[in-house]
Structure formats: C-alpha cells, structure tokens
Amino acid sequence: MARLVVGLGNPGKAYEKSKHNVGFICLDKYVKQAKLKFKKEPKFQSEIIMVGKNILLKPKTFMNLSGNAVRSIVEYYNIEAQNIMIISDDLDLSFSKIRLREKGSAGGHNGLKSIIENLGTNSIKRCKIGIGRDEDTSAKDYVLSSFSKTELKIMDDISITISNVIDDFFNETSFQEMMNKYNGIE
Description:
6 helices, 38% helix
C-alpha cells in the first residue's frame, strides 16, 4: 500500500527560508540526502518524487490551497487517509520541538485546514515542527518571516531527524512507536 508524505510550504524564492516552509525544508533535506530530485507534476499542482511505492509531495498551490493538490494525488493513487503524513510548522510549539499526532483539528493552520476539508477527514497523521511565536508580531507576518542563520542551522539538524521520521513512516513502523520515539525531541 502506497504511503504519502506531504511537506507544506509556499512556492517561490520569497518564501524559501520562511518559518511556514518547514515542510518544504525537511523534504528538500530528505531528497538531497537520498540523492533524488523532485519532478514538477502540473496535473497534481505539485512537485513529487516516487520512493519505491511511496510518494513525497510538495504542493505548489500556496499554503491555503494545499488540500487541492493533496486531494488530486490521493484520488489518483487511491491512497487511504491512514497512509498520509503531513509535515508542517506549528506556532504553538517552541522552536525546533517535534510533535507527531495521529489526528486532530487544524489548530489554526490553514494548510492543514485545507487538507482536512478536501479529504473530508481529520484522521491524517501529522509531524509538526515548532516555530515558536512572537507576541509582538501578527501570526501571519511571523510565519512568513525568514529563519535567522542560526535557526536555519538548527533546522538543518531537525531535518535529519525528520528524514528518520519519513523513513520510519515509509517502512510502516507503528505510528504509536514513532510518537514514543520522536515526540518532544528538540
């Protein structure tokens, strides 16, 4: 059974190093380590890579419409909700903290909200990466702001851990086991 890992972010150079793009950053690191290359797939409004029977997906629809891209590939490959994992940023987690969840609400994240609405279920696995919060900056401005050089170095280390999360997911490790192993890692 195929598994799908979706990294959330916004397309374009302007957003490349933004806090909202941790999903893209982590998938890019995974792909670089594996010496793979994303392929543009206009019919899915995404960039994808097949890893055996599994799929890595970077929607190119902008965050608020991520569900359109996810739905199109899920329908095309007939992927069941329990075989999907979304990698996204989380404002409510301290910077660099990792939290895996089997299901839940969008928690104010518009990319997750779009996916939940398009798939008609909130039973989608999530790998959330904390970006912290700046109380003096609006949430919208904060998530679209760029990581500092120091934060990017830390994100590089986190991306290595997330590569292990992806491998475990693709190898069908029980999600409960994955949560025990990775939750709380910083």
